Amino acid sequence: MTYFIDRRPNAKHKSAVNRQRFLERYRKHIKRSVEEAVNRRSITDMERGEKISIPARDISEPVFQHGSGGARTIVSPGNKEFLQGDKIRRPGGQGGGGGGAGEGGASNQGEGNDEFAFTLSREEFLEFVFDGLELPHLQRKPLKSLEEIKMVRAGLARDGVPSRISITRSMREAYARRIAMRAPIKRALKEAEEALAAEERKDPVLRNPARVAELKAEVERLEKRIEAIPFIDTYDLRYHQLAAQPQPSSQAVMFCVMDVSGSMTQNHKDIAKRFFLLLYLFLEKHYEKVELVFVRHHTAAREVNEEEFFYSRETGGTIVSSALTLVNKIIEKRYPAGQWNLYVAQASDGDNWDDDSNICRDLLVKQLMPQLQYYAYVEITPHDHQSLWHEYETVAAQFPERFAMRQIVNAGDIYPVFRELFKRRLSQER
User: Rounded mean pLDDT of 274-294?
Assistant: First the structure.
């Protein structure tokens, strides 16, 4: 005899007592609250969740009732005076000091329902922060010598481990077996019952008691045989087979290029670090095989580790082309374009030697952009753009889909600019 013990995890998006279903239902309200929280808190403060409040009127359930009355929502087209969610004050009554009756004059602040509040975890908070974002033009690259193996289903088998059992197919096999085994027994049972009924309908004088007893015993025996057929047997069990299948690798590398020259004030550097920190959290959240290469530059560019990239106090003049040349050398040495998706994110204040801006444009057009999937440039300055921005505009005109540039004035612009740079494209190449 075989027994089923269902230890399967909950279905996708329905775990944790339907928490995911709840988050999807009120996604609009939660996303608005998360965006407000991001603008309110520091970008560096992303290691905790957020407390979300939803107005009680937005979580009320629809009900059926008789007659008019109850809570109603009325939309009047062409109304320019009120917006959705506004509370219309009751007109003043005849008594009670002109404050009206009921909720309108109960207190100075009136009465209402408390807002529904709950807390988002860190993972849920980051999920809403980076909702709708992705690396542009991410492609599947050809298989390398070290193949990525993915286990895929390859039919059914009679032997396997309990975690791979196919409930539907096993039950179907058990049902078919019961039908096949019961069919001849049921036919014999029906014949015995008909013979017994015919014998019992005879005159008592002509009735054969021995025959009646024999038929009753046969009916009882056949009924026990039917009941003894197991609901499910080991023979019925079917298990999912898994086979190893080589998969193309979608690995990518992100070059983080930051200007640390003397023209970059401490405020500019803090904004650049916050931008790259947000980029780091985004890549960590959504992608498994993305490498980060950190490049700092002033008059000379150096590849550094994460700690030195964010906390080093080294500074100097400004030659942007040194960073682009270093990125190109690293690509040629370690990241061939045929095997890697290449991305560059650059943050600068736009200050550069005039003669060097032309060199940057040529490096991008002739060497880097033909290899890169995407190039994002943010200029951190409240002033007018300089020569580097104008040269980059010519690059953006030649590569409109793969080159993006935006200006950041203060810390409040970081998140909106980041969402604009990495928003999901409908015409994504796969």
Answer: 84
CATH of the domain at 278: 3.40.50.410
CA 369 remoteness from chain centre: 30
Give the domain extent around 122: 1-63+114-129
| Domain end residue (candidates: 181, 211, 241) | 241
pLDDT in tens, 301-312: 999 988 888 777
Q: Which of 108-122, 140-154, 303-317 has the highest mean pLDDT?
A: 303-317
Confidence check: pLDDT of 34 > 80: no
Same domain flag for 39 and 173 = no
pTM higher than 0.70? no
For residues 217 and 255, membership in a common domain is answered with no
